[in-house]
Design a protein that fits this description.
The protein is about 45% helix and about 10% strand. The chain is of the alpha/beta class. The longest helix has 20 residues, at about 135-155. The chain is globular and about 70 Å long.
Length: about 550
């Protein structure tokens, strides 16, 4: 079908379709960008341009750049800002960089890009922009760029080069230590070895040690004088030798993500555990984001926390659009929200932030926190990569949209009515007048965790801390008729732990009842708040790695 016929009807078509047609037309005719389209076929370009103007779209929202692999990727000004900021930080230090942050970001906005521009040309423009205001930073950026180019070239034969470990030192080590037995090697390969896509294999233990040690030493924020570099190189060699010979190790998170794009793009991926009080709807974005980068999450669902959340609407209709995967070049990284008549449309972006924003926006429009007259929420998952696609930054493979779709179904059900198992039995009663109880918060947080745990990351660990007098939470996992029922699968994502409040002394009968439940169901655990507050007077909870704090 001719492109003119498509374009003539664009006023009734969503923005995504307009962009899809544009990209398909560019690819079909081998046009690099819209400038070339305009020059070679001005008639169809003019029609397309007039149509796009009617959508009043920002230019950046439909601009694409060309990666070194030849693939198209949506342009994001934040990446230029981040590159400039990091270069300034490494040249002048953290404090000075924070002082100049606004100025750096404004300078980044002066970098002129166009649709279809290549990565190398963008970097040339960044160098030129830095040279006009920060020549020392520009010099650092140029040298760093050259090092990265050399490193990319070295990847053709060797996986990692190191700034602190010389080839003459590394040549003395094999790929694996002789005393690493088969069980140790299996554990390493399963848990910490990353995919080397360029070579079609996984890292060796030597390569993992180079990567993680180099990253660890690089976090030293001192200026790289000759004296400091001598110290850091010696430090790196000692650390490498200890870790390679299994005498000492960096943290598990550093072994897996240190030195990878995951640690540079998502610094929280280096954190093992976290704690949060979900007393605002924004907190559920944080729960999803933290879990998605591999951090465990402890959360508190006591009565006072639940009281702070807004009432939820129970008359909204949810429509989940059947999934039809978009090509890579047409996917959106950021979640977009559209309002038409009585419907809110959420297009989920293919990124951690995209998923988090989708959850946050969904909960916002499902609540009375935001006044509106919309009756329907429509969610489109087509930008999410399909199951089995590799996850470049974190390693592993995507699970596709199905787990996330399942999370929305469960959250919607628990907000709007009784939550039932697959056999119709009520597991959690409906929120009265839309006011969530702690057990509803547990459902929401754990449904989010369930979407993440199968999404290619290494794990999803949670602990839910609840009030001693909350019978619903205490009995949350005690009434199942079929433990293989997919409707209850999210329950297992948290260790439900009772808070024995400060100053309260339980009776022998209470303790006996708790122990009986633990013997039968494995829960609840319990936390002595008196001991918790003795350790820190403002403590509100603990992360999933907490030690047992026994009642005294």
């Amino acid at each position: 079908m001719r492109v003119e016929k498509f374009l003539s009807n664009f006023l009734q078509i969503q923005k995504e379709i307009c962009l899809a047609i544009r990209n398909a037309f560019l690819l079909k005719n081998n046009f690099l960008n819209c400038r070339e389209w305009k020059a070679l076929n001005p008639k169809t370009y003019s029609l397309y341009h007039r149509t796009m103007q009617k959508f009043v779209l920002e230019r950046v929202s439909f601009m694409f750049i060309r990666k070194r692999t030849g693939e198209l990727q949506e342009f994001n000004i934040e990446k230029i800002q981040s590159a400039m900021f990091k270069a300034f930080q490494q040249t002048h230090g953290v404090d000075k960089a924070e002082q100049e942050k606004k100025s750096i970001f404004k300078l980044a906005e002066t970098v002129v890009v166009y649709d279809g521009i290549g990565i190398e040309e963008i970097q040339n423009k960044v160098e030129a922009a830095l040279m006009t205001k920060y020549p020392e930073v520009a010099k650092h950026f140029v040298l760093r760029r050259e090092k990265r180019t050399q490193r990319r070239e070295s990847l053709k034969n060797v996986v990692y080069s190191s700034e602190y470990l010389a080839p003459s030192f590394l040549i003395n080590y094999k790929n694996y230590p002789d005393h690493m037995n088969q069980l140790s090697k299996f554990t390493y390969l399963r848990t910490y070895s990353r995919d080397v896509v360029e070579l079609g294999r996984r890292e060796t233990y030597k390569e993992t040690t180079i990567r993680s040690v180099d990253h660890n030493v690089s976090m030293d924020n001192r200026t790289r004088t000759d004296e400091v570099m001598r110290f850091l190189k010696k430090d790196a060699e000692q650390l490498f030798d200890a870790q390679f010979n299994l005498r000492g190790f960096l943290s598990g998170r550093a072994l897996f993500t240190g030195g990878s794009t995951a640690s540079s793009n998502f610094p929280l991926s280096l954190f093992n555990c976290s704690f949060i009080e979900p007393d605002t709807l924004d907190a559920f974005y944080d729960i999803l984001y933290l879990l998605s980068v591999g951090a465990g999450v402890g959360y508190r669902v006591t009565w006072d926390v639940a009281e702070k959340l807004p009432r939820m609407r129970q008359d909204i209709h949810l429509h989940l659009v059947p999934y039809v995967a978009l090509p890579k070049t047409m996917r959106k990284e950021k979640t977009q929200v559209f309002k038409t008549d009585d419907t809110i449309s959420i297009t989920v972006g293919d990124s951690r932030d995209g998923w988090g924003v989708a959850i946050k926006e969904f909960l916002k429009y499902m609540s009375y926190e935001y006044e509106h007259d919309f009756k329907n929420i429509r969610i489109n998952f087509n930008s999410i990569r399909g199951a089995g696609e590799p996850l470049r930054s974190f390693g592993g493979y995507a699970s596709g949209p199905e787990p996330f779709i399942g999370a929305f179904k469960k959250i919607y059900e628990v907000i709007t009515g009784d939550y039932r198992d697959s056999y119709g039995n009520i597991l959690t009663k409906k929120a009265t007048d839309g006011k969530l109880r702690p057990v509803h918060i547990m459902h929401i947080a754990n449904s989010i965790a369930e979407a993440i745990v199968v999404g290619g990351v290494r794990r999803s660990a949670m602990i839910a801390l609840f009030s001693r007098d909350d019978a619903e939470m205490a009995a949350a996992k005690t009434s199942f008729s079929d433990f293989s029922d997919p409707k209850i699968s999210h329950y297992w994502l948290s260790n439900n732990t009772m808070i024995v409040e400060a100053g309260y002394t339980p009776t022998r009968e209470e303790i006996a009842g708790w122990m009986e439940n633990i013997k039968t169901f494995g829960e609840p655990g319990f936390l002595n708040e008196t001991e918790l507050l003795r350790r820190h007077p403002e403590a509100r909870g603990m992360n999933p790695c907490k030690f047992c704090t026994f009642i005294q």
